[in-house]
Amino acid sequence: MFGREKIEYKTPDQVRAMRRAGLVVADIHAALRDAVAPGMTTADLDAVSADVIARAGAKPNFLGYHGFPATACISVNEEIVHGIPGDRVIRDGDVVSFDCGAVVDGWHGDAAFSLVVGEGTAEDQALVETTEEAMWAGIAALATGSRLGGVGDAVEDVVTRANAARGVELGIVEEYVGHGIGTAMHQPPDVPNYRTRDKGPRLRPGMCLCVEPMITAGSPENKTLADDWTVVTLDGSRAAHFEHTVALLDGGIWVLTAPDGGAGPLGELGVRVAPLG
Fold first, then answer.
1. How far apart are CA 56 and CA 96, in angstroms?
2. Which pTM was predicted?
3. Binding-site residue set for substrate
4. Where does this protein hold substrate (predicted)?
5. Among 58, 102, 140, 268, which residue is least crowded by beta carbons within 10 Å?
6. Is residue 52 part of a domain?
7. pLDDT of 210
């Protein structure tokens, strides 16, 4: 899983440039959280994303990427990732995942979140909460560990504890992983969301990484639909997806796509964010 491809290390000034892209993505997320409601289509929601990007003077990094036809990936219920916005209508109780990105001055930001629309089940809410918890645990591992493989260890530990506590069998999708990011949306190294034998490269200042676990309420086995994009669970179980872009700095980490740099959630885990300057 871990290759040894060349990693693009960023200077502090380049990290600050990436922060500008990250804040556009944060604004997209905020607008989507405010907008999503039963009766909307996923195309309606993609229009919200496009509007935020345009008003910021940024560029979409998803639109046209290998032919992808929209500014955001919007995946509903059994769709794990890469859902193409269209005429699917959002209904009360749906689990909806938004994967969004933007480019500012050639630097990329990328982040995802999931939510339960309206009145959902306790099981769906637990799925979403566990996936978000797993993401933050993976991000915290970047601040406290020495090797990239610690991210997958932390994510899997959260899911294992949730399964034991709730008597459920949440699954971790292994085919789609996190990644490096910078002058391109996807760069080395891969960032697995599960425990691996290879502990990966050493963590070093200047790395910018996306941590993005995808968790299913049933089996993680999946397939890609005929549109060549949308990935769905084979058993029809629901899925959730969270992601942030994270910079490793001399003094620690900074979550570039979180409004507060990740200070709130990471503080609860005993991790302090580094000064970005």
1. 25
2. 0.97
3. 82, 186
4. 82, 186
5. 268
6. yes
7. 98
Would 137 be classed as within a structural domain? Answer: yes
Phi-psi region of 118 (alpha: psi -120 to 50; beta: other; left: phi over 0): left
Tokens of 48: 């919200």
pLDDT of residue 275: 86
Q: DSSP E strands: which ranges in 134-260?
A: 171-172, 178-180, 187-191, 208-211, 214-216, 222-224, 231-233, 239-241, 244-249, 252-255
> Is residue 192 reached through a cis peptide bond, with omega within 30 degrees of 0 on the bond before it?
no
Buried b (16+ CB within 10 A) or exposed e, 7-39: bbebeeebbbbbbbbbbbbbbbbebbeeebeee
Q: Which residues of the chain have pLDDT under 70?
A: 1-4, 277
* pLDDT, tens digit, 9 for 90 and up, residues 124-149: 999 999 999 999 999 999 999 999 99
* Residue reference for tokens 């302090």: 272
- With vertex at residue 54, the alpha carbon angle to CA 48 and CA 59, rounded to the nearest 5 degrees, is 110
Instruction: Please report, for the domain that includes residue 249, its CATH number.
Output: 3.90.230.10
In a domain, 225, yes or no: yes
Q: Is residue 50 part of a domain?
A: yes
CA R_g for the chain: 17
Greatest extent of the chain over all pairs of C-alpha atoms, in Å:
48
For residue 215, give its domain range.
12-269
Query: What residues form the annotated binding site?
Result: 82, 99, 110, 179, 186, 212, 243
Domains in the chain, number: 1
